[in-house]
Amino acid sequence: MTRDRAAAVLARIGVGAASEGTEPGLIDGALALAQYSLPAVDPAPYRQHVADLADRTAAVLARRDHVLARRDALHAALVAANGYHREARDTDTLDDANLFRVIDRRRGLPVALAILYVGVGRALGWSIAGIAFPGHVLVQIEHAGERRILDPVENLRSLGAPALRNLLKRVAGPEAELQAAHYAHVADRDLLLRLENSRKLRLVAQGRLAEALDALAAMRMLAPCDPNLWRETGVLHAQVGNLADAAEALEHALALGHDAATRQAAAELLDQIRGRMT
Length: 278
Known about the structure:
The protein has helices spanning 3-15, 26-37, 44-61, 67-80, 99-105, 110-123, 161-172, 188-205, 209-222, 227-239, 243-256, 260-277; strands spanning 85-86, 107-108, 127-130, 139-143, 146-151, 157-159. It is α+β, with helices and mostly antiparallel strands. The chain has two domains: 3-183, no CATH class; 189-277, Serine Threonine Protein Phosphatase 5, Tetratricopeptide repeat (Alpha Horseshoe). It is globular and about 70 Å long.
């Protein structure tokens, strides 16, 4: 997959495939993000590794096919046999947010691990997805009328309602209570955006703004109509002195923004940029 082909995959995810069943999958998207930032790396071995993980998971599952057996099979194949785990230290390394390097190192961000777990399960035809739990990446697996919430941070530990309630209060405050919306599936695109946003934030923190702009370009392929991505693009272009590009990005943000605050912020910054261009 060349960088152009990676961009094409991301764009297809961003607009949705024209016919059902042809939109790239979650692993395709994550590998495309990895390829977009590391174009010299061949993605084929990584795609094969994910296929091998699915085969091993299926072999472990064998005839014990109930929802907890599926969780146990994922754990056996990815955690026990391959050592996948969350990065143990707080780190700003970009490797934690690139699926190539996550697979190489067998560790990474929770969202990267969640993408692997979901991708392997989907390869086996399972009902498995990320959920909209605030402040923490969780995966939901369903089978035969049963549901389990799994925590990629803790090696796929199954979380019941009391554990989920405690986790919610830790991340959202003591007054927070579980709601049905916290169990809603999130789109694959949202997981991919979260992964690439983590990479972008690290680049900005390191002062590597040109590369951060590249990450934002990948994110805009995934979500071309997100005014916040266009506004942030304009801000970074202005910081590196690309005033014409900044103005163009802010014009997109202004055109796409629906709420008054977003439009006002884009308009004020656009006026400042145009003032600097005269």
